[in-house]
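quick one
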Amino acid sequence: MKTEGGSTDAKRDAGERAAEEAEDGFVVGLGTGSTTAHAIRALGRAVDDGLEIRGIPTSFQSRELALEVGVPLTELDAVDGVDLAIDGADQVVDDPDVTAHGALIKGGGGAHAREKLVDAAADRFIVVADPSKLSDRLERPVPLEVRPDAHTVVAERIRELDGEPTLRDAERKDGPVVTDNGNLILDCAFGPIDDPDALATRLSGIPGVVEHGLFVGLADATYVGTEGSVEVRRY
Ligand SMILES: O=C(CO)[C@H](O)[C@H](O)COP(=O)(O)O
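structure w/ ribulose-5-phosphate:
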């Protein structure tokens, strides 16, 4: 379930601007997706120019790209902390008048379990986005990474919460998407989500759910590329 739309230039502007926040000695969380890929490429160029960082990939995709562009890698359990995480989002609440301002839906690439681990561990978590991701509330389906043997019982619990679960199908492979962790993805439509924090708590409590794609209270800022400039939302 990749987010559709969004200009490449806007994504590049956001990603490259966020990469400028990395400093010598930083451990940097490397998110997943097309917007973050611009940040990883910019970090690779900065490393070529002498910046000394280590990256923690959040997916097979971000690991491969980091290796390709020369960002030295480490692991979450091999470092004392994460200084900065840069990651994309599928939807971002952009309304300073609501408590959910800055809450996210992630997992369009099925990488949200590792992304949440790394983003939550970071001293500073910057979301990179183009304007198509901004919304006054979260309403896209929420991806749930679920254990393969649990997908039918989790789907039933989602229906009890008035959600509509859909097992994510793979493209160019018969059957479902299998995550980097060997699990399945249920995309769960709840309609407009008035209280993401409350829904996040309920989803976390369902046995068999490895991780859900609601990121509430985690982001420190969103860098929004607007084709030529970058608007910064701080939380
Ligand atoms: O959460 C994610 C992957 O699980 C991505 O960050 C999210 O889907 C945004 O991707 P893109 O920058 O390609 O629009």
